[in-house]
Amino acid sequence: MRLVIILIAIGWGVSAVWAFAWSTTKSRDAKMTAAYIFLWPLLAVILLLNEPVALWLSVPVIFGFLPWLLAGPHLSAILKDPAASKADEVIGIPRGYWKWGGIAAVLLGLLFDGYA
Predict the structure, then answer these.
(1) Where do the TM regions start and end (predicted)?
(2) Nearest to 110 by CA among 63, 58, 64
């Protein structure tokens, strides 16, 4: 099963590298989105290969799947229409959600780490 997950992540990584190379002449938001599409699976595989990992670190990475899932449609939208990119958003998600979601994920990981 671990090999299947690694192969899926490698497939996504290859497509993300292609997206990143394709968006090099595009806006900063397009570059950040393509980089996130590439880096999140890489980080997930690194954590998977380095088990056991502290929950305060792994919970935010697991929750990072949701923005990663939404990053593809966002990248497609801003490549079609660069005006769709907003200044107060990172990868199509408002900065406040990133800040408070990151803090909550780390705290949730610390809470679970205390009980594990």
Answers:
(1) 32-49, 56-77, 97-115
(2) 58
Q: What are phi and psi of 53, to 5 degrees?
A: -120, 145
Domain ranges of the chain: 2-115
pTM: 0.78
Instruction: Give dist(CA 48, CA 110) in Å, integer.
Output: 19
From the CA atom positions of the chain, what is the Rg in Å? Answer: 15
Q: CA-to-CA distance for 99 and 36, rounded, in angstroms? A: 16
H or E element, residue 115 = helix 95-115
Identify which of 53, 59, 55, 19 has the alpha carbon closest to the alpha carbon of residue 36: 19
